[in-house]
Amino acid sequence: MKLIVGLGNPGAKYANTKHNVGFMTLDQYADAKNVSLLNEKFNGLYVKTRINGEHVILLKPLTYMNESGQAVGEYARFFKIAPADILIIQDDMDLPLAKLRIRESGSAGGHNGIKSVIAHLGTQDFLRLKIGIQHPKREKVIDWVLTPFEKDDAALMQHSYSVAQGALDDFIAGVSVQELMNKYN
């Protein structure tokens, strides 16, 4: 079984903010697969489904970004999912806008949601799909990540979400991490 987690903050106030690209990517992927994350368990909205013949859980933690690992850890333990079968979709300020990067493991790089996931899984060895939101030029980081994209940027991000769907399909299909990195980085 695979666990795909979109990181973000719940609630209308945060719905279209840069910090919620994980939620937005996962929502669009779920829509494309004709499933809805309507079930609630362990502080997360989820759907357990089959995609291309594989068992998959799509999850949006409801604990707010900084405590995302609580839900991820609970799902991993309850459904007995190994870290190698987990993919986290996250925003990344160090990447140019809409750029995708697959990363196999490593530190949180200052991302509090990833810090929480590492703490609750007890390992850094899980796959990340990073989506660039670029670094703010003048704003404070907290103000930057909690604001919506400009209209022109939102259109560019839509393309990024579409490309990300292919990466999720490939992950579910068991494509190797190296092949994923070669194809999407």
What are the defining features of this structure?
globular; alpha/beta; Rossmann fold; 185 residues; 7 strands; 6 helices; seven-stranded mixed β-sheet
Stated plainly, the CATH topology is called: Rossmann fold
Please state how the strands of the largest beta sheet are arranged side by side. Answer: 2-3-4-1-5-7-6
Q: What portion of residues belong to β-strands?
A: 15-25%
Specify the CATH architecture.
3-Layer(aba) Sandwich
Give the low-confidence spans: none
User: What is the domain total for the residues?
Assistant: 1
Q: Give the CATH H-level superfamily.
A: Peptidyl-tRNA hydrolase
Identify the overall geometry. Answer: globular
Order of helices and strands: EHEEEHEEHEHHH
Helices, by number, come to 6
The total strand number stands at 7
Q: What is the averaged pLDDT score?
A: 95
Q: Classify the oligomer.
A: single chain
* Main sheet properties: 7 strands, mixed
Q: Over the alpha carbons, how many angstroms does the gyration radius reach?
A: 15 Å
- Proportion in helices: 25-40%
Estimated structural class: alpha/beta
Q: CATH class, please?
A: Alpha Beta
EC number: 3.1.1.29
Keywords: Cytoplasm, Hydrolase, RNA-binding, tRNA-binding
Site (Discriminates between blocked and unblocked aminoacyl-tRNA): 9
Site (Stabilizes the basic form of H active site to accept a proton): 91
